[in-house]
Amino acid sequence: MLKEFKEFALKGNLVDIAVGFVMGAAFKSVVTSFTGGIVSPLIGLVFQSDLKDLKWIIKEGVENAEGVVEGTVAVLYGDFITNVIDFIIVAFVMFLIVKAVNKLNKKKEEAPPAPAGPSQEELLAEIRDLLAKK
Q1: How far apart are CA 62 and CA 65, in angstroms?
Q2: How far is CA 44 from the centre of its chain?
Q3: Are 78 and 48 in contact (CB under 8 A)?
Q4: Is residue 77 in a domain?
Q5: Distance between CA atoms of 32 and 90, rounded to whole angstroms?
């Protein structure tokens, strides 16, 4: 059973998937940092606030004795917009990567040149000569 697991775990495709997963997670954190640190503040300039702070308060909360507001119900559309921007960036980069890989695979799959052989004229001449011998 251990031998079968080792064969399964070390298959090329599984290792490729694991590497892709780790790279994707690392790339996601880079994109999140880019969106949170660069894109959100720029978009926030339009709304005069940080993009992540945008929300629609449905029900106001009550301030307790310690000064903390509790019971607020709000739709956090700023977080949603930030996550949509993250998704679009990641999806676009993945599209570019897949497009580049497909382009490389097409170059590998190009048909080899046809084997060199007699030309059509040479074959016709040979047929002519064979018929003339009869």
Answers
A1: 10
A2: 27
A3: no
A4: yes
A5: 10
- Cβ pair 57, 72 in contact under 8 A: yes
Question: Phi, psi (5° rounding) for residue 132?
Answer: -70, -30
- Domain membership of residue 54 (yes or no) is yes
Token pair listed for 68: 């903390």
Query: Which residue range(s) make up the domain with 21?
Result: 2-108
Taking only the tens of pLDDT, the chain with its 134 residues reads: 888 877 776 676 777 777 788 888 888 888 888 888 888 788 778 777 777 777 888 888 787 777 777 888 889 888 888 888 888 888 888 888 888 888 887 776 666 666 777 888 888 898 888 888 86
Q: Which long-range contacts (CB under 8 A, 24 or more apart) does 46-55 make?
A: 50/78, 51/78, 51/81, 51/82, 52/78, 52/79, 52/82, 53/78, 54/78, 54/81
The widest CA-to-CA distance across the chain, in whole angstroms, is 117
Q: What is the pTM of this model?
A: 0.57
